[in-house]
From TrEMBL:
It is found in: Cell membrane. GO terms for biological process: respiratory electron transport chain. Keywords: Cell membrane, Electron transport, Heme, Iron, Membrane, Metal-binding, Transmembrane, Transmembrane helix, Transport. This is Cytochrome b/b6 domain-containing protein. It holds the Pfam family Ni_hydr_CYTB. The chain crosses the membrane at residues 26-49, 90-113, 145-166, 186-207. Residues 20-220 form the Cytochrome b561 bacterial/Ni-hydrogenase domain. It is a multi-pass membrane protein. SUPFAM superfamilies: Transmembrane di-heme cytochromes (SSF81342).
Length: 225
């Protein structure tokens, strides 16, 4: 099958529709904001506040002022602060889970032209029809597969996160808590790697042949075929 750029008139004759549905765009930006929030909670807990590094300094400062506080007492107070941030992590985590459900419904409810499977199929066709054409990230099958990989990582993050939420209350979940935490932790680095590559790719595409792809993700863009 010929690609639209190979037969411009046929493509131009087809009726235009939004490339990305409203539901997908809301998901995309909502998901990006919530993930940024989740990563910020970890940044605060593990780096900016870093209770383990902070408590000896607090103890030293109190000592200078004539107040003696044991490590246990300080850990208790530090725990209050950490708890607040973990609460936010969980609120954002549950929001991420809801958004993942939203993404699934958006996919199932979308007309064929707006489905991910359609975009993947068109990329494959493009690669077959115009292999000699210079590389464009927008048409890259590899990029589409990276999205599939991301959806898998997102699912793992949500499932492991929800297990951690209920690990204290459900005996069976408590038993696997340690392993689940490890998976949750390692998966975070994979998600960060995706985000770095994705943002790098978007900037590269904008600077080269695919100007306006970001605005397409805002207003929906246009697709004819
Ligand atoms: C946490 C941050 C982000 C995540 C996890 C993320 C994830 C994704 C995913 C999964 C897709 C594929 C959607 C689909 O077709 O099903 C996508 C597409 C896209 N994203 Fe992001 N995104 C993030 C941030 C951003 C930002 C900040 C920008 C713009 C500056 C951006 C621009 C785009 C664009 C232009 C596309 C469409 C690219 C294409 O047609 O292949 N994303 N993003
Ligand atoms: C991009 C998304 C996410 C990132 C980057 C992330 C990151 C992390 C990290 C690094 C930890 C610390 C694990 C450890 O202590 O070894 C953690 C713990 C946790 N996460 Fe997530 N997480 C995400 C999504 C979620 C989701 C969707 C949920 C569930 C709704 C969730 C719930 C939890 C819970 C309950 C804990 C354990 C908190 C505790 O030890 O008290 N997370 N997360």
């Amino acid at each position: 099958m010929a690609h639209p750029e190979a037969t411009p008139t046929a493509a131009a004759d087809a009726p235009a529709t939004k490339k990305y549905s409203g539901a997908l765009r809301i998901w995309h930006w909502g998901n990006a904001a919530v993930i940024a929030g989740l990563l910020s909670t970890i940044l605060f807990l593990k780096v900016i506040i870093n209770m383990r590094g902070l408590l000896p300094k607090v103890q030293e400062r109190l000592h200078e002022q004539g107040v003696e506080a044991s490590k246990e007492q300080l850990r208790g107070i530090g725990g209050l602060v950490s708890h607040r941030i973990w609460d936010w992590h969980i609120y954002l985590g549950v929001t991420l889970a809801v958004l993942l459900g939203w993404r699934l419904v958006a996919e199932l409810a979308a007309p064929t032209l707006q489905r991910f499977a359609h975009r993947l199929r068109r990329s494959k066709e493009h690669q077959q029809d115009a292999p000699a054409e210079s590389f464009r990230l927008r048409h890259s099958v590899l990029v589409k597969y990276s999205y599939l990989l991301f959806y898998l990582m997102l699912t793992v993050m949500v499932v492991t996160g929800l297990i951690l939420v209920y690990a204290d209350d459900v005996e069976a979940l408590h038993k696997i808590e340690h392993t689940v935490k490890e998976i949750h932790n390692v998966n975070m680095y994979l998600i960060i790697a995706f985000i770095v590559a994705h943002l790098g790719g978007v900037v590269w595409a904008e600077l080269n042949k695919d100007k306006n792809i970001t605005s397409d993700m805002i207003h929906g863009g246009e697709i004819r075929k």
